[in-house]
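Subject line: Sequence and fold of a protein, written as structure tokens
Enclosed: The protein record, placed directly beneath this head.
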Amino acid sequence: MPIQKSLPNYQTLELLLQQQNVALTAAEMYGLITGLICGGNHDYNWKKSIYELTNDGLAFSQILTNPLRELYNFTFASLDNNDFIFNLLLPENDKVSERADALAGWVMTKNDDQNKLEQALEEIIEYVKVAVQLCFITFMEVKDRRMKAKNDKPTLH
């Protein structure tokens, strides 16, 4: 079976989930699938886990199962690729608040366990802090190199 070359359209998957009365967003479903893969679920049992976690153990119709299978296969292939081509499935619009909400859903899958939500939030905060520090270090190194190059010019007396 050929593996699709890119993530599905966010809005298309979102609409499909709504039509099938699945109470997850596209980002949450993708986060769940990715979590199952990263947790070691690399066989056909992933569908059973999805059904149990999202649909009281009942299978989805083929209308939804087929795109989710493609998403699972694509995600596994992208994670297993040495070129690190993995990306998040988030809305493709300019509304930052919608993209941020989708990211929160991707990470937390709307879990009601407050301890788990707090832990997920702390992990996101730590990630952002590290990203900020890495940006600062990178740009300071560039600035330092420029200053050093400027100061290394020979002077005539």
User: Anything to note?
Assistant: The first helix runs from residue 10 to 19. The mean pLDDT is 81. The chain is about 65% helix and 0% strand.
